[in-house]
Design goal:
With 340 residues, the protein is mainly α. The chain has 14 helices and two strands. Helix 7 runs parallel beside helix 10 and helix 13 runs antiparallel to helix 14. 34% of the residues are buried.
Length: 340
């Protein structure tokens, strides 16, 4: 008896060699997408078949949205060859779409239909949709405030960390004085400096910016320093033989060779800065997603909390994707040398 499984690309494979060859090629390639469309259809039906245990006004809208997504998945998967990169990308993400559709169906049944999970601690999907429609102005204002604060602190921390790391890695004199300070301040979490920061800086905004910059600067400094210090001396010898000056050695040899380490520090600093952002906004800032989370918690508006967490996750994921794009563009010379 043959056993069927899904590969990473969403193709149907079998335990018996050659058994899958009897299936049409389009079916084997679209199997995961077809199951995903069925799962999203089931999610839409789960919204309509049973009555809600609470009063949520977006149940029918969520069902319609689920049916629309199911239709797009069916169309995109079965017509992938005609839709080009979009269709092939959708087909490749078929297993994830399948898991998401099943998860939403179970979530809907466990909350809105049968209340297996206690309300209001576990709100249904339609209650989160209500937040995005009814409380959009306040949530959007919080997103804008968080992005401004995050960008400012992250840019300052990344720039200062990069300059400090290059200085320590290049100059022994700078390393002699800065290294002990770095070892004293770096291991301490940025949130431990909250009392000092809010006492020292004139506004809560500037104090929060300092904390985000501190959380970003330490990993960038350490990784940049490591990258500059690990550059092979043969590169410098070749450049000096060609008449290179010290400024050329720093700008054209040390920094380009250290960029892979720098980007590792930037990725680490990005995660740390988001964690500090939430804490700083909860304590001292009067706007932002952290403030919105605290406000929602105070009113026991758990749907608003989950909605804000989803937005924050999307923001962090988008920032990581953008940083990957920048890295791929600047380090294009690594392709073929390092497996991405």
């Amino acid at each position: 008896m043959s056993t069927y499984s899904l590969s990473e690309t969403g193709r149907l494979t079998t335990g018996r060699e050659g058994s899958a060859a009897s299936l049409p090629e389009w079916l084997r390639a679209s199997f995961a997408g077809i199951l995903a469309g069925i799962a999203w259809t089931a999610f839409g039906l789960s919204c309509l078949i049973w009555e809600d245990v609470g009063d949520w006004s977006r149940t029918q809208a969520v069902a319609v949205g689920a049916f629309v997504i199911a239709a797009l998945v069916f169309t995109g998967t079965l017509g992938a060859d005609r839709l080009g990169s979009f269709g092939h990308g959708l087909r490749q993400r078929g297993p994830w779409l399948l898991v998401l559709g099943v998860f939403l169906s179970v979530w809907e049944l466990a909350t809105a239909k049968f209340a297996w999970l206690p309300l209001p601690f576990f709100p249904p999907p339609q209650s989160i949709v209500e937040v995005y429609t009814d409380d959009l102005p306040k949530l959007l204002a919080s997103v804008i405030a968080s992005v401004k604060l995050q960008l400012g602190g992250y840019a300052i921390g990344a720039l200062l960390g990069f300059i400090t790391g290059v200085s320590i890695g290049w100059s022994r004199g700078v390393g002699y004085w800065v290294h002990p300070v770095l070892r004293f301040i770096g291991p301490l979490p940025a949130t431990a400096w909250l009392p000092i920061a809010f006492f020292t800086f004139p506004t809560s905004w500037s104090a929060s910016t300092f904390l985000i910059a501190l959380a970003t600067g330490f990993p960038v400094t350490v990784l940049t320093w490591s990258g500059v210090a690990s550059v092979s001396s043969a590169y410098y010898d070749v450049a000096r033989t060609l008449g290179a000056k010290p400024s050329f050695l720093v700008l054209k040899v040390a920094i380009p060779a250290a960029l892979p380490h720098v980007f590792v520090g930037l990725f680490m600093g990005l995660g740390s800065s988001f964690a500090v952002l939430v804490v700083a906004e909860m304590i001292g800032v009067k706007a932002g997603l952290g403030w919105y989370l605290q406000w929602a918690q105070g009113w026991a508006a758990y749907a608003n909390m989950y909605a804000a967490l989803i937005v924050m996750s999307l923001l962090c994921s988008g920032a990581i994707t953008l940083l990957f794009r920048v890295r791929d563009r600047l380090l294009v010379w690594q392709k073929g040398v390092v497996k991405w």
